[in-house]
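Data availability (excerpt). All sequences and predicted token strings are deposited with the supplementary files. A representative entry, Glycosyltransferase RgtA/B/C/D-like domain-containing protein, is shown inline so that the format can be inspected without opening the archive.
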Amino acid sequence: MAVIVEQAAPQAQTRSAVLWLIPLACAALGLLVRFLAYANTVDAASVANFAEGLCRWDCGWYVRLSEEGYDPFPVPSMINAGNWAFFPLYPLLVGALRMATGLPTMVVATATSILLSVVAARVAWPLLGREIRAYSLFCAFLLAGPFAVYFTTFYTEVLFLTLTLCVFAALQRRDYLAAGLFAALVSGTRIVGVFIVLAIVLQAWLDHRQRGGTRPGFISAVLKRPDILVAIFIAPLGLFTYMAYLHWHIGDALAFSHVQRAWGRATGNPLMYLWNALTNFPQGTWWPTVSQQLGAAWLVGIAMTIVMAARRQLPAALFCLVCLTLPLSAGLASMLRFVVGLAPVTVTAMTLLARSRVVYLVSLGVILVGGYFGTVGWLTGVLTLV
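Structure token line:
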């Protein structure tokens, strides 16, 4: 027995080292691929300007937010939008690290995002079924894939994805208190993050029923579990804290929602938005329109959600359904980013692609090649990526 234990220890250490080496290797490869795309696309490209050069679209809002904080009301520059739509946790983190290190904002943000992506990959290992092919695909997708700019520059997707993985990894261990703590951070990262509390409640319900509990007895059973009760109550704490700040700062606790009008995001029928997007056919070309591509991205997200439900991963499926449906009710803008940043969707997709060795190898190649062209598209203004 002692011999078996002695042999198992080095094997566990080797596996742990491999699980860190894979995302680190993908991080290095991703940096190289994105720099080559940057150097071949941007005039006067240089290593010194690389991090700043990849800062596009909403990234500029996050940089200013981390350096200057939230706008007062009215906005001094008299633009038609304040920066209240952008949730505070990641800009606060980057701003604190910038002040601590004295480094430029985008250098700090890039390094932090890459580190978070590496951590996210490691946290996802048990959620990927501890399957090395799915794990390597997930690492490549985050750190070197066609949408790696979301996870390696200055966007909240990387923190949102990492914290979401932490919540579901904690729920997998039935560590409700840890899940609640991570959920509180998720709710301070993106507007839909608060709905992860639904996954915690549903997991508690499923556990209750599995133990033979009755429907009427669920509430009393939760009241006898301080860990579940605390988790449910602290899960929305990030959102409530931000709302309290906005109320104090500009007198509108819901400014993050009200300001969406400035971007033309009017609430409507989500099915009508989807139908209009998918039927917006191209003129004079075979390539799908931007709206069709965004609609297809939403459909992929829903397909992965259905797979989760079929696998009885009901808390993840519920969370994804809410996170996909609510943004759709305001249109398809940024939908691709929302889908690929939804951790359970990406995890599920990678597990499907890893089932066949041939599909796995092809997928890995496509992901890595896509890392170059995705960066080129990002730098040249492909609107689907915005």
